[in-house]
């Protein structure tokens, strides 16, 4: 969660990947969706995370607490605080059931597709091989330069 919510990761061009069709969240459709998204983005990351896990994903309170690495009481307080902040910015969503329905409407229509384990492993091994070869080449270059200068 921390990685996904860190704003500086969005600025790294090397980490940007094209969006996948199966897991793309559609852009907000109307003013009400924009208001909800603005309200969610104005929340502190831990409050937003707790609210989205509890009201958006549908986890119950102990599961939300476990996912956010907090006590159940702290998770409940975060959800209540986040609901109050969202209700302050979007009064139509003061009712938790209405907020839950709106978050459901904003979620993707289908489950996000994930890569198969073999594909992920192959890509990871290829990346490790590349880094290893680069390290060996750099070591050889430094050793050669040292030998040439001495």
Protein model, in words:
With 150 residues, the chain is mainly alpha-helical. The protein folds into 2 domains: 91 residues, Arc Repressor Mutant, subunit A (Orthogonal Bundle), CATH 1.10.10; 35 residues. Helix content is 65%, strand content 0%. It contains 7 helices and no strands.
Concise summary:
This protein is 65% helix and 0% strand.
Shape summary: elongated
* CATH class descriptor of the largest domain: Mainly Alpha
List SSEs in N-to-C order. HHHHHHH
pLDDT < 50 stretches? none
Rg result = 22 Å
Number of domains: 2
Distance between the termini: 51 Å
SS class = mainly alpha
Oligomer: single chain
What is the overall pLDDT average? 80
Largest sheet: none
List the SSEs and their pairings.
Blueprint: H1 2-5, H2 31-42, H3 45-57, H4 61-67, H5 72-89, H6 96-106, H7 117-149
Helix pairs in contact: 2-5, 3-5, 3-6, 4-5
